[in-house]
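Q: Predict the assembly, please.
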Amino acid sequence: MTIPISYYLILSAFVFLTGVVGVLIRRNIIAILLSVELMLNATNINFVAFSDHLQDLGGQVFVFFALTVAAAEVAVGLAIIIALHRSGSTINVEEFNLLKW
Amino acid sequence: MLQLLFGYFAGMIAATSILVVALRNPVYSALSLLVMFFHVAGLFVILHAEFLAAVQVIVYAGAILVLYLFVVMLLNIKQDDRYHSQWRVAAFVCVPLLIEAIVLLSGGSRAITTGSRLLQTDSHGTIAADNTLAIGQTLFSTYLFPFEVASLVLLVAMIGAIVLAKRDIGESDTQSMTQPAVDE
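A: Predicted assembly structure:
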């Protein structure tokens, strides 16, 4: 009565694609970071599903490390957003062209 | 029963992940992401990863999302948030990926399930009844060096966040001492 792993993979792929679409179509930089969180959670679902499927704890440990990296990404990303907002007083990504040739 | 729970969690995860992208107000996006984190934690409980479910609720929902909401409310974002002009690129990238995923998962799921049980004899140990104990033993024996590297990553991120967010204050202090009449 277990759930086949392909269901988890379909769910994970769907959430990951939603995150990719969000990164590409949103203009608000905070919404873009939230979409990155969506993608990280999709990979976490994948890791835990395979960890249960293969009866191997390595997947769960990797989710732990992915969580660490997500926390670091959020801290640095939000600090960058605050610095950008101070300098330009906007968080619309189409107005950030400082590094564009 | 398990199928019913999985269906509920998967449906709610899919719906809230769409809401995260579709809602205009970033506060609503963050709150629907909060709902999604709780349902992902429920999915982890189904998958016998109780420790990760607790960590998901505490770290993601408790720490990371509060940080997001704090920044959203600090920056006082305007409501006018249209979609990015490269949505055609998004469609061009994501529709083939979606089709590929559907094709691969419909055709290749049998190959995954048949070749899976061969990998059980691994050095990491099988999943025990006490999930937290097993993760702790694996984390501090096999993955000890990555664990230390992760702590270093957190330290660097902390220093980086402080430096990035604090630099303007220091500069404006020194500027106000040297040239006080600069208007922004």
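The mean pLDDT of chain A is 87. The radius of gyration of chain A is 17 Å.
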